[in-house]
């Protein structure tokens, strides 16, 4: 099994963490998004959508992170404990509910804040207009509040008392704006306690390893400058504000 990943990407981190934590055998195929490698000829042969993660298992290819996570769980039942994707109908439904919701909520708003704080200023040379930044931060706050009240509630984890794919996907998404210096856990004791429980299950060393690149996003400016991606990204980002 080959996993095509860039650990700056939240979905890539979820796939990587599950595979590493459970001992699923795979070959790490690095796709450097900051260098535009997703647009290269070689990766195009693997994924016509040109996004990561992608998985190649023999001749079989998947290009959506949730599908990859579910595939790995079901392909390696001898390695992946059942709590990651519960067989119980209602607990699995809770996992699926979160996985369906997060795309247009937690992921969308966390990613937007990440781009506004870490990428746009680097590419354009100016800060995002205050009203747009304030709106993005408010959307993220509302989403985080909903995550706690609707999905986490008073449980140890999203689907109950054991960690699941839902928690794995949630934590990598929430860490994205954290990488820009925005501590969304500040003043949130229940959310912070959940984060620590998830980290303990994953293993703190593995968790920190997977998030090392996102916690060092200050390097993006030099990276974009060195690989010529600044000029490539400018027109795309300008469209966001016109």
From TrEMBL:
Entry superkingdom: Eukaryota
Protein name: glutathione transferase
CDD domains linked: GST_C_Theta, GST_N_Theta
Subunit: Homodimer.
Enzyme Commission (EC) number: 2.5.1.18
Cellular component GO terms held in the UniProt record: cytoplasm
Organism: Gadus morhua (Atlantic cod)
Residues covered by the GST N-terminal domain: 1-80
Subcellular location: Cytoplasm
KW Transcription regulation (keyword) present: no
